[in-house]
Amino acid sequence: MHNNRSDAIILPSSMFVNYVRPNLRFGNSHDGFWGNNHAGPPNIWDPDKGFLVQATNLPDYELNFPTTGLDGLYFDLDIEGEDASQLTWYVETEGDIKATVSWTRPIQLGDSDIWIPPHQKYNPDYYVTRVTLHGPSASPSQRNSDFPSRLKVPSLPQTFELVGTDGRGNAVKYGFVLKQWFVSRGLDYYHIAGFSEQSTWCDSLGYKMSRISDLTNAKCGVDDNFPCKNGVDGATPSSEGNFFQRQIGAGFFTEWGVVGDYGETPVPLQHLWTSELYMIMDGGIIMNTGLDVADDMSMSPPLGVICRTP
Fold it and tell me: How far, in Å, CA of 187 to CA of 306, rounded?
């Protein structure tokens, strides 16, 4: 019986959010590179369901997924005890970032929503309760410019409470707190560049190039590609090696997984610069570029970038 779960939202109507599902790919022991186990601890992450609800009260919403965001990313609420199609949603928040809740079909195009089993993804009767984030993002002209105009910088942290009602006085709630916001330069060849150019691009927007710890909880010192030097390491709680393991509050990719699978979200699939002159790949894997701050950055390889605030 789920009704005795301490991590579920229990209301008199017996409605509760059971799990919160972002991209599940790179969330278990068999779909990552080289046999890496991307699954987080069982009290945080279920490889087949997503993140478990960690908090049901407003003061503790910061313990829930997500703590990071980017325009257009989304996750689904697994609601039990009620026909979710009958719920009307409103979002309580104040700030520059918005969230919308919709009863919708999964995206069928290409690899979008690839984590949803095909018998559900392509079933015309299968719907999900989907939460989508909306906030500052670079326009096409900003992505194409080496010196883009400044972009709105949201004030963080920002708290969200999602409330679904059924018209009979029953309600279900889910809350989270965004602590970091990310902006991508884009997907394609025209938006990759050397380290200095990408750092300047982020600075021009009013953002900063992401650090390793902003993106992944990969652990340094496990392999030669990610040595422990100059105090550089991934976020904590750390994973078991040079790859992310799913956790809340331990990096952008650690929370969201492979962001290229989310519809038309313009995030490079791999090969991103970090501010420490390392390269990050799918799965939160860190690669040593061999560069140092004293090197000639004009020789640095062209890579993508995701900027962050704060």
Answer: 11
> What is the token pair recorded at 63?
């313990």
Sign, Cα dihedral of 265, 148, 255, 128:
negative
The DSSP 8-state label assigned to residue 202 in this structure reads H
For the chain, counts of helices (H) and of strands (E) = 5, 16
Query: Could you tell me the CA-to-CA distances from 155 to 43, 180, 310 in Å, in that order?
Result: 31, 9, 9
* Cα 114 → chain centroid: 16
Q: Give per-residue pLDDT as tens, 2-19.
A: 344 444 443 445 789 999
Q: Is the peptide bond before 266 cis (omega within 30 degrees of 0)?
A: no
Largest interatomic CA distance in the chain: 66
pTM score, whole prediction:
0.92
Q: What is the pLDDT of residues 277-309, one digit of tens each?
A: 999 987 788 988 877 655 556 668 899 999 999
